[in-house]
């Protein structure tokens, strides 16, 4: 319970208009996009500057108040739920693009900028910011960095951490800390930029980034390939990569997802296909043509029927179908458990086999789609969390899915992070020694364990 | 002073053949490739497995013995000098390439593998490992990761940290810790892979890596461009990038360096040129041709005379000249202070102006060459460390060089790291709050401060 005098201090820092403590307001910030159990904060504040953030950190530290940083709350692993109460710090007013440096190809942004808004602003200046998480229309750049968000372009262009050149954040003593900078090479002290990526709000409150930009591709070609067998689709993915083509997008949808999306959107997807691959190659026009020919050859070798998108409208329609996978699946049942177990790319066929076995064994409903080119599928379990018996089967199925991913040299989380949902799986992947090491880092930085406590099991 | 009984324990772990404590042997490991003051260890050991490394870590921790990990000792900032004595741990027997996975494009290697040997082995399998630090024929991959080594290809392909997918290391409690893995996307817990890159041996002893490989470029074109004015060369660098061409190599040599290299090697460099740029573009053949035309246009606009290397022998000869810059300069005077102040790429002309002012003001001899495309020049001060008055001028000149780099939004270290040499400059770049944060990480991980103590000022 935070003392009234301390609540007044919060209000003093951010002002009346950026302060909330009524039950209705607190309830709004008790959950995120995951299915994890909600928990209410005691106060919500919305700072307008790095300096205000630093003051809030210090106030929390001085009064032992848990501090949970929140962007748009699109987290899928419970990462923004204030499990132990305390203060939720909203980043939504730190939403300015401070600089887009076209000549040196970087941008300086505040953490609360919406991902898609930033990408559009960059494009307008003739440059390209590749990371495109599924939630990009809502998610903040700060959330993307804290979770090291992936997206559809990871295979060729990498993920969020590959674009963070510099970061400014506040520690719990109220210091302003600076990692990295504006140069493409930088080796001054610890790689704090690397450490903060994927730290899930547990090591500081990030307020500003220097993000790397790249020249946009000159040409691209998109195609939709349908298969009568999902294994053929899996083998196509691995065949494309071993032929040294790195598509900018290489997405898979299984039959269940195809049918569901088609019902929801009428996008014109082939509902009889066992699986679809959405493939886009980009780069120099001649490279695009060569890559396209290679992809075509591999698809045909694996019995795929290729349909090329001839206009950008056609392409957008195909992509829209893929982007609507999650929301379409969500219409079917009350609860949706979206996983992101990931394997080395050539092991996609193996994980598909494992998934089918798990589906049958536990009689669960799974729609599978995702970034096959990265080995990062999203098997999505459709269920009803009020049905205890069904949820028990789903949880066992998820346990086995992760075990299969680890057996195949994979990971429990390709891009969603650990949060609350996957904390228990971490030890199997990394071992006790690694967990202990992570705890030592956390303890060194945040001795009272106030920064997003319990997340990642820390 | 390490007790005799403890020395016996070291010997017991690694065996007689991997243990040294005679004064002559210890003297060998008292210095590295920097000009920093030597310091002797008390014992040198050469483990043959991760398990032996873990045992040595624990033994050092239990007996409060400083532990300095050493690959080939090519460090230029004093990073491998055992300043407070203790144990030097040689990684040279952990030198196996454990796996090159052609289909999933990664390799698993031990930390003591020589960089160039690894790159050659990868090439033999039809793949490409881009990082190419100047010391690649001697340096180890472990040293490259610990320092986040750069090289000639940083501009287009990134630096060492961009290729480390996973790391195995030992902490001081003797735990074996695992960061990252074999998947291209991975978000399980802290980004320990990112943290260990650039940690200069202060956070653990790294024994194994998973390294990312890429398809090799299909074509390339190299050229040598000579200028009558170094400013024209600087403007050409920035013109190429703003035209959205990212050469795989974009190197600069000033007149002093050109003349010195030519005298030493007779490589056929134009000794009257004020500056040279060595430029290589690579990729798809059509892209290479387009990029070449753009580079040609920019060079001509800036009064550059372009000579294309028509054969791989011609190219090798040009590159050999650049690679010999450091050794050629080293012949002129007894002491060589090689810096790596780095600025955003378009500020190359500004840092060149600053360097010339500094040279005149302190009457020092500077040969400048380096990775202009990254904004990462290597101004090299030629001097004699026995001449106190001259060294005072050199140190003042270096101070001003770093101040100029910071004024231009740059950094004190683009790729050599901090070590002993640059610890005092860090605070101006990152501020007290950041230094404090780094200290808290170090304290959390290595409470007794035994892992490469004093480095980075920690």
From TrEMBL, chains A, B:
Q: Which cofactor does it need?
A: FAD
Signal sequence residues: none
Origin superkingdom: Bacteria
Please state every residue range assigned to the domain named FAD-binding PCMH-type. Answer: 36-216
Matching entries from Pfam families are given as:
FAD-oxidase_C, FAD_binding_4
- Keywords associated with the record: FAD, Flavoprotein, Oxidoreductase
Is-annotated flag, keyword Oxidoreductase? yes
Q: Which PROSITE patterns match?
A: FAD_PCMH
* Name by which UniProt lists this protein: FAD-binding protein
What species is given as this protein's source? Desulfuromonas versatilis
Q: What is the lineage of its organism?
A: Bacteria, Pseudomonadati, Thermodesulfobacteriota, Desulfuromonadia, Desulfuromonadales
Gene that encodes it? glcD
């Amino acid at each position: 319970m935070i003392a009234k005098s301390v609540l007044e201090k919060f209000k003093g820092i951010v002002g009346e208009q950026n302060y909330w403590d009524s039950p209705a307001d607190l309830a709004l910030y008790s959950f995120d996009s995951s299915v994890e159990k909600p928990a209410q904060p005691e106060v919500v504040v919305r700072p307008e500057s790095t300096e205000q953030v630093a003051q809030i950190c210090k106030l929390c530290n001085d009064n032992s108040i848990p501090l949970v940083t929140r962007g748009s709350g699109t987290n899928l692993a419970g990462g923004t739920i204030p499990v132990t109460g305390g203060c939720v710090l909203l980043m939504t007013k730190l939403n300015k693009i401070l600089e887009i440096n076209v000549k040196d190809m970087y941008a300086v942004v505040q953490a609360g900028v919406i991902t898609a808004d930033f990408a559009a602003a960059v494009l307008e200046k003739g440059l390209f910011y590749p990371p495109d998480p599924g939630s990009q229309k809502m998610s903040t750049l700060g959330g993307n960095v804290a979770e090291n968000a992936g997206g559809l372009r990871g295979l060729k262009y990498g993920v969020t951490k590959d674009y963070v050149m510099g970061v400014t954040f506040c520690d719990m003593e109220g210091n302003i800390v600076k990692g990295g900078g504006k140069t493409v090479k930088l080796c001054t002290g610890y790689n704090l930029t690397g450490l903060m990526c994927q730290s899930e709000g547990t090591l500081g409150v990030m307020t500003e980034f220097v993000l790397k930009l790249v020249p946009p591709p000159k040409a691209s070609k998109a195609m939709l390939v349908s298969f009568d067998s999902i294994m053929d689709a899996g083998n196509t993915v691995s065949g494309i990569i071993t032929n040294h083509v790195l598509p900018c997008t290489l997405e898979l949808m299984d039959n269940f997802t195809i049918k569901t999306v088609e019902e929801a959107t009428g996008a014109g997807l082939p509902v009889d296909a066992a699986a679809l691959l959405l493939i886009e190659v980009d780069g120099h026009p001649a490279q695009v043509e060569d890559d396209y020919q290679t992809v075509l050859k591999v698809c045909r070798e694996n019995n795929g029927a290729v349909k090329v998108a001839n206009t950008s409208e056609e392409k957008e329609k195909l992509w829209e179908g893929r982007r609507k996978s999650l929301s379409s699946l969500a219409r079917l049942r009350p609860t949706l458990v979206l996983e992101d177990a990931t394997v080395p790319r050539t092991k996609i066929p193996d994980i598909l086999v494992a998934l089918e076995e798990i589906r049958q064994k536990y009689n669960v409903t799974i729609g599978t789609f995702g970034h096959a080119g990265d080995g990062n599928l999203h098997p999505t379990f459709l269920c009803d969390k009020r049905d205890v018996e069904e949820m028990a089967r789903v949880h066992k199925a998820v346990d086995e899915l992760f075990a299969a991913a680890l057996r195949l040299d994979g990971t429990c989380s390709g891009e969603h992070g650990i949060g609350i949902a996957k904390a228990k799986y971490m030890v199997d992947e990394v071992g006790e020694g690694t967990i202990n090491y992570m705890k030592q880092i956390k303890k060194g930085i945040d001795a009272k364990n106030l920064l997003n406590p319990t997340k990642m099991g820390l």
